[in-house]
Amino acid sequence: MRRLLRILVSIVGVVVLLGVVFLAYAHTVMQGERPAALEAWRDDAVSITSTDVGILIEPVADDRGPAAGQGLVFIPGAKVDPFAYLFKLSGVAEETGLTIVITKPTLNLAFFDTRPLETFTALAPGIEEWWVGGHSLGGVRACQLAGGADASGGPEVLGVMLFGSYCANDLSGTGLAALSVSGSNDGLSTPAKIAGASGLLPAGAEFVELDGVNHADFGDYGVQPGDGESTVDDTEVRREIAAAVTGFLDARDVSRPAAA
User: How many Cβ atoms sit within 10 Å of the Cβ of residue 111?
Assistant: First the structure.
């Protein structure tokens, strides 16, 4: 009996140790670069609000751009600080008119975040039409959310926007629109992986590959292990990402509301 008790105590100890190690791993994130985030906060063209659920980026001129009145729920890559995406995504909001919610995933890992899409869209109750997207593993999770949108009874989902990412579930039979923005120098979501998973996206999906851009260029959090080398300035990457999204939305014939 005492031997059995010692075994049980040992097992509990191992489980607790593994839990502590995992929590330490999950909470060790790739921190956003402060100068880039500050530049976004100081951008007069957008308004930024941080909540426990996510970070809301709202264009100040809401009649501007091809997607004024629409929103994008953006899911960060695994263990990447959500604030690391402020600089790049504020450019998207400014140019397109999209209201953007950057989620704050459970344990900094999108796959552990089981909250429904409306948890995040509730941050912008005036927006009724939404896109779902993300970077790296965040984009994989975005595809899952988009694939289950019809059954969830949540907000209307127009489609997916992937940034250095690809789907793991099959969306090819859906009527969703899809945009894939990737980097030619991405060492993680490589061009070969993007091409290999392209058949999982709906027919008519648009693919834009940015020359010289690597995996970490879609945010601002420094060098990522296993990544390729970036040859493009951060400001230029921001412009090119915004241009890719703007071009995609223009091609979707999204109507632009008249200015008040």
Answer: 14
Contact 184, 211 (CB under 8 A): yes
Torsion angles phi and psi, residue 97, rounded to 5: 85, 0
58 vs 14, which has greater pLDDT?
58
Q: How many CB atoms lie within 10 A of CB 17?
A: 10
The SS3 assignment for 197 reads coil
Greater confidence (44 vs 13) lies with 44
CA dihedral sign of residues 222, 223, 225, 227: positive
C-alpha closest to that of 84 among 11, 26, 7, 30: 30
- Per the CB < 8 A criterion, the answer to whether 46 and 59 are in contact is yes
Among 119, 122, 123, 144, smallest CA distance to 133 is for 144
Q: DSSP character for 192?
A: H
Which segments of the chain are extended strands (E)? 46-50, 54-59, 70-75, 99-103, 129-135, 156-163, 177-183, 206-210
- Measure the CA–CA gap between 126 and 143, rounded to whole angstroms: 24
* pLDDT tens readout for residues 88-140: 999 999 999 999 999 999 877 888 888 999 999 999 999 999 999 999 999 99
Q: What is the C-alpha to C-alpha distance for residues 257 and 64, in angstroms, rounded to an integer?
A: 9
- pLDDT by residue (tens digit) across 58-91? 999 756 678 888 999 999 999 999 999 999 999 9
- Of 85, 131, 146, 134, nearest to 110 by C-alpha is 134
Write the Ramachandran bin of 125: left for phi over 0, alpha for psi from -120 to 50, otherwise beta: alpha
